[in-house]
User: What shape does this take?
Amino acid sequence: MTNRKEITAGIIIIGNEVLSGRTKDINTSTLAKWLNSIGIEVKEVRVIPDIEATIIENVNHLRKKFNYIFTTGGIGPTHDDITAESIAKAFNVEYGFHKEAYSILENYYKPGEFNDGRQKMAKMPTSANLILNPTSGAPGFNIGNVFCLPGVPSILQSMIGGLNNVLIGGDPILSITISLRTVESEIAKSITEIQNKNNDVEIGSYPFFRAGKLGVSIVIRSSNKKKLDGCYQQIYKFVEKKGIEIVEEV
Amino acid sequence: MTNRKEITAGIIIIGNEVLSGRTKDINTSTLAKWLNSIGIEVKEVRVIPDIEATIIENVNHLRKKFNYIFTTGGIGPTHDDITAESIAKAFNVEYGFHKEAYSILENYYKPGEFNDGRQKMAKMPTSANLILNPTSGAPGFNIGNVFCLPGVPSILQSMIGGLNNVLIGGDPILSITISLRTVESEIAKSITEIQNKNNDVEIGSYPFFRAGKLGVSIVIRSSNKKKLDGCYQQIYKFVEKKGIEIVEEV
Assistant: This one.
């Protein structure tokens, strides 16, 4: 929408536990907020099962479509952790012990505790760059434009900071949220008119039900602060004119 | 994996608010658990933006790939609600006021309150079947094997029960979760051996951190109760032999 070069990302959540409904994915939200803050927009998320052919197909399709791909899940020590081997096959590169990863894990565990399962976590594309893990030792890895992270949210969260200097983003995407005491259908027409006059700002409208009361959050997003502020002024003016209560502004 | 005919589903989450990280998707979990209970397996989830061409492309690709497709989001009254029109275009059918939907909404609102925004919610493929909404009036709709539901979780949840007699599922997928006081790398080898002996059961291993203590949940899934129970016995035996504490069984 703007003139700036758009930097895009796709996320691939690898895990039967999300597809079965057992686990609610929260890594998408963590990754998206962080990527937004460094000027990278998430354009698509896919949740796929722990099946090698499916992982390869999706990684190879999406890595051509977006600037960056992030995968979560499937890099632990158990039989259902097949992400690293699948990624090696997707890139058609050697899969085996990564020297640096092996050495990190060997030092991380007490002598005698670096067993088969733990050694498996040092197996990945041997040419990959490591993504260090300050929480639990086992690193993620990066090959080409694909970044492979673990599925456990707290561990993933502790690892992404290390990538801030690796990724090349655009201007950060700025946003303002205005929460109103109204219902969508009361403001739909005016918001449409404002959207039509502000092509460089994305306006979203999201109903909410909080503390027993209905409301609507208007979220405006742009990488251009001036245009964002201009759009905000137009919304503020219309809200004031209509006498709609503002519940919260963030 | 089993001999039964597999009935599959895909989910398409339509919404910039999930891609921006602002909203965490919980509809996938609701849909997946419900679909599992009626013997339908979710094979893929995609989160895509509110862009017409993207919606059309994904719907047309996935509806050929799976038995059922569920979309969430984008069927409200505002300018960014474009799911219904996009679906009509994907199926190349007429988009306009759906007589029954119009009449439901006209009756739902007080005289004089059925404004433009609300009338928009009666617009959809004119030949669609309605999915009734006991919470807030505005119906979802079904065309072909595609079922379009709203994005607000509580409303979506109230609507899916009405589909139990419409969808044709297979045998329900049964599961047992055994939560152990151990770490994945300690049990990886034994669980791999058990998985190799139980091809008709899917075994997943998920580390957790609860009340300050580490553990691993072993989730076994199958539509065959006898095979599921057999696999469970093997895991129980190994856990007992190793002296691993069972935290919880569900």
Remarks:
- Chain B touches chain A through 64 residues (CB under 8 Å).
